[in-house]
Design brief:
Layout: H1 5-20, H2 29-57, E1 62-66, H3 76-82, H4 86-95, H5 100-105, H6 116-130, E2 135-140, E3 148-152, E4 155-159, E5 172-173, E6 179-183, E7 186-189, E8 195-198, E9 201-213, E10 220-230, H7 234-239, H8 242-253, H9 266-293, H10 301-304, E11 305-310, H11 317-328, H12 333-343, E12 344-347, E13 358-360, H13 361-367, H14 369-385, H15 391-397, E14 400-401, E15 404-406, H16 407-413, E16 417-420, H17 423-433, H18 435-440, E17 445-447, H19 454-460, H20 463-473, H21 494-519, E18 528-533, H22 542-558, E19 567-572, H23 580-597, E20 606-611, H24 616-622, E21 628-631, H25 643-649, E22 653-656, H26 662-669, E23 675-676, H27 681-690, H28 695-701, H29 703-710, H30 724-731, H31 740-759, H32 761-773, H33 780-792
Parallel strand pairs: 1-2, 1-11, 2-10, 11-12, 12-16, 16-17, 18-19, 18-21, 19-20, 21-22, 22-23
Antiparallel strand pairs: 3-4, 5-9, 6-9, 7-8, 9-10, 13-15, 14-15
Helix pairs in contact: 1-2, 6-33, 9-11, 11-12, 11-14, 13-14, 20-21, 21-32, 22-23, 22-29, 22-31, 28-29
Bound molecules: 1-beta-D-glucopyranosyl-4-phenyl-1H-1,2,3-triazole.
1-beta-D-glucopyranosyl-4-phenyl-1H-1,2,3-triazole (KOT) binds at residues 115-117, 120, 311, 349-350, 355, 421, 450, 638-642, 660.
């Protein structure tokens, strides 16, 4: 233990006094949270400094994980657990009449991410710290995180997420590490042919550091988030009018003001590009300036530094590193290319064409003239080197094409590793989306199936299950997740299976209580909790789930012989503010909830709860309570998924298509312990290539499908109003791009299979246990070990 009880208690009292000039008895839970977090930060500060010193003195290789998103979730509880002071702090707080839950819940969640990609970054940072790997995060300190979702008349309304209001006790502003980021201007070449960038606008990038604490604080890594501030030198300060200065300040601050500004307009897009360059440039400048303190030759960079780019959003790392090496350190092109190529590695998270980032060349040319020149030259060299390749291959592989810069191509060509995030996804990268690049650089492509943090998703979110596991197989699984497999010895033990059910029921009751208190909705903990929690996107097919519920609803009210185990359908997720159709699906589900939940004919056999503002904290409540995990994306479209792993770990049975990591889940649990339906990869690819899918035909020939689809537009759901028309059109007029109708029957069958499986409770509990027992491979610790070994070549420092 890092500290004894009395000492910690005294520190906390002192901290409250310092922060508020009040005694701990007279402050609020939020205030206690702030002071407690600061006390913890102080407690680990020696370890944080020592860690940095060790890495510096031993010249250990370090990784910098560049990501536009880090969705950390609340930090207090995880940190208390990792420092092994949770119980102690709980009892100290009790001394002052505070409940630890209330204090934990008063932490505002930093919503610095959209979904899977941002949450993965946070799980990875957690694993790195716990494995003793020197890996630091580099990102943006958005003033406003992911919007807060509210519902009005069933529609999604977006409210600003002012998460920094008040104090963020975890961060330290590092004024003296400020960097300058330059935009615009012109470039000329001096007599030595060196590029001179002039007449640019400057922005200050101020870093805020957050400690990433490993178990017992043996390792404390750093998450560095950059904030944009006005940069004026003395002469400007003396000459600029006050109002002009404020105008400029506002303009500058916009860069780090919000996560993912709406990119449906050019103005929004430009801001996004500014963001990308901002944290890339600031991060790299600070890394190189630290590296130079080692006095090593710059050619040593790849041996001491690995830079990982989380999807293409930080791809400007490539030309920016080249720029620093050439224009500031005076290396030649060839040397700079060698260093860059051996330093940067890239993860791809999507094969959806519309999400593959490409920037109009003129945007880059105007905003980042020197960077654009470097990209052009890299493209020229690529073309020169591969001039022997056929026209078609070159068309697909060049960096610049038809006036656009293709970031994924730049990332593959100028890095040493490209990985996908599940086996199928990596396969599709190699054989479909990046086929030609793969043929040129086959050795660069590799798979790293995603993983999730066990500390957050069982130890913290489901302590009841964690201690049942401890009592059954011992605690080794907490350090070595593959040891969960020891649970396989208990799958026929009736006492264990009963206990699994007891734990699940505790979590279901807790969630039911939460839903009653917070949303005034009554749900039955004895019903099946069927969960779909993820961003709203057409390819994730919440629409398919909704149509099946609609169909069940018809059956329940019209067919007296139709038997249905009471089921609570739980939804959570946001739609991008500009994603019109996804918002219509949200409206549909809310309308269904309105009608079904209040229809006496349903007799509570169906309930729908759409939890507003789904975020990490809500996930922590929902996931332990889930019986069924809906993973129903169109095959090929979900790169991996990670909620599938969290739900499996917590004993939910997966209802899934053969997509993303679902395939690997099936491989782990076997066909009897998962329910699979729908088109597979080949069938989807064939339809797409042969253009022979006909949704209207299905609609015309299948009366069930017709009835359900018609219910979107025939007034069956009065609350939906005209909002069903767009969904109807997407299925019929636009020929159902995501094969919802094609998979409808098979999905319905699968959902009935789930129903009948749940009736056999013993067998169900066994399946549940098998899911938990075989989830070890999906620990992000395991994933990160593979990144460390195969990609980064870094070792733990303890
Ligand atoms: C978003 C925009 C551009 C490129 C990629 C994305 C993206 C992909 N955002 N989130 N993802 C998800 O990443 C997760 C972590 O790898 C995957 O599990 C999931 O399937 C992706 O959709």
């Amino acid at each position: 233990m890092l500290v004894d009880r009395e000492q910690f208690k005294e520190e906390l009292i002192k901290q409250v006094k310092n922060d508020y000039s009040q005694s701990i008895q007279s402050v609020s839970a939020t205030e206690v949270y702030i002071s407690l977090a600061k006390t913890i930060r102080h407690l680990i500060s020696d370890r944080w400094v020592e860690h940095k010193d060790t890495v510096r003195n031993e010249l250990s290789k370090q990784v910098f994980y560049f990501s536009l998103e880090f969705m950390t979730g609340r930090l207090l509880k995880e940190n208390l657990i990792k420092l092994d002071i949770y119980d102690m702090v709980e009892s100290i707080l009790k001394d002052f009449d505070f409940s630890i839950d209330e204090v934990i819940e008063s932490e505002r969640e930093p919503g610095l991410g959209n979904g899977g990609l941002g949450r993965l970054a946070a799980c990875f940072m957690d694993s790195c710290a716990c494995l003793g790997l020197p890996v630091n995060g580099n990102g943006i300190r958005y003033n406003y995180g992911m919007f807060e979702q509210r519902f009005s008349e069933g529609n999604q309304i977006e409210w600003p997420d002012d998460w920094l209001r008040g104090d963020n006790p975890w961060e330290i502003r590092k004024e003296n590490r400020t960097q300058i980021v330059k935009y615009g201007g012109t470039v000329r070449f001096d007599e030595d042919s060196r590029a001179i960038h002039e007449n640019y606008d400057m922005v200050h990038a101020v870093p805020y550091d957050i400690p990433l604490i490993g178990n017992d604080a043996k390792t404390v890594n750093t998450l560095r988030l950059w904030s944009a501030e006005l940069s004026l030198d003395d002469s400007e300060l003396n000459s600029i009018e006050y109002s002009k200065m404020e105008e400029k300040r506002t303009e500058t601050k916009k860069i780090t003001n919000v996560l993912y500004p709406d990119d449906s307009t050019d103005e929004g897009k430009l801001l996004r590009l500014k963001q990308e360059y901002f944290f890339v440039s600031a991060g790299l400048q600070s890394i190189i300036s630290e590296f130079k303190k080692t006095k090593l030759s710059l050619s040593e960079i790849p041996n001491k530094v690995a830079i990982h780019i989380n999807d293409t959003h930080p791809t400007l790392c490539i030309p920016e590193l080249m720029r620093i090496l050439m224009d500031e350190e005076y290396l030649e092109w060839d040397e700079a290319i060698e260093i860059t190529k051996h330093t940067i590695s890239y993860t791809n998270h999507t094969i959806m064409q519309e999400a593959l980032e490409k920037w109009p060349a003129h945007f880059l040319k105007n905003l980042l003239p020197r960077i654009y020149m470097i990209i052009e030259e890299l493209d020229r060299r690529f073309l020169e080197k591969y001039s022997n390749l056929d026209h078609e291959t070159l068309k697909n592989t060049t960096i610049i094409s038809e006036g656009y810069v293709r970031m994924a191509n730049l990332a593959v060509i100028m890095s040493y590793s490209t990985n996908g995030v599940a086996k199928l996804h990596t396969e599709l990268l190699k054989t479909e989306v990046m086929k030609d690049l793969y043929n040129i650089y086959p050795e660069r492509f590799n798979n790293k199936t995603n993983g999730v943090s066990y500390r957050r998703w069982i130890e913290s979110a489901n302590p009841e299950l964690a201690s049942l596991i401890d009592n059954t197989i011992g605690e080794s699984w907490r350090k070595n997740p593959l040891d969960l497999a020891k649970l396989n010895d208990y799958t026929d033990d009736p006492i264990m299976l009963d206990k699994i059910e007891v734990v699940k029921n505790i979590k279901k009751e807790a969630f039911a209580n939460f839903v009653r208190q917070k949303y005034n909705i009554i749900i039955d903990p004895k019903s099946i909790f069927d969960v779909q929690i993820k961003r709203f996107h057409e390819y994730k097919r919440q629409l398919l789930n909704a149509l099946n519920i609609l169909y069940m609803y018809h059956k329940v009210i019209s067919d007296p012989n139709f038997k249905m185990h009471p089921t609570t359908y739980i939804f959570g997720g946001k739609a991008a503010s500009s994603y019109y159709r996804a918002k219509k699906v949200i409206k549909l589900i809310n309308s269904l909830a309105f009608h079904i939940n209040s229809d006496p004919r349903v007799k509570n056999r169906i309930k729908i709860v759409f939890v507003p503002n789904y975020n990490v904290s809500l996930a922590e409540k929902i996931i332990p309570a889930a019986n069924v995990s809906e993973q129903i994306s169109t095959a090929t479209m979900e790169a991996s998924g990670t909620s599938n792993m969290k739900l499996m770990l917590n004993g939910a049975i997966t209802l899934a298509t053969l997509d993303g990591a679902n395939i690997e889940i099936r491989d782990q649990v076997g066909d009897d312990n998962i329910v699979i339906f729908g088109l597979n990869k080949q069938e989807v690819l064939d339809y797409q290539k042969n253009h022979n899918y006909n949704a209207s035909e299905l609609y015309e020939n299948n009366p069930d499908i017709k009835m359900v689809v018609d219910s979107l537009v025939n007034g069956f759901l009065p609350k939906l109003g005209y909002d069903g028309i767009d969904l109807y059109d997407s299925l019929l007029k636009e020929n159902d791009r995501f094969f919802v109708l094609r998979d409808f029957e098979s999905y319905h069958e699968a959902s009935l299979q789930i129903q009948s499986m749940y009736r056999e409770r013993k067998a169900w509990n066994k399946k549940s246990l098998i899911n938990t027992a075989n989830a070890g491979v999906f620990s992000s610790d395991e994933t990160i070990k593979r990144y460390a070994q195969d990609i980064w070549n870094v070792k733990g420092i303890y």
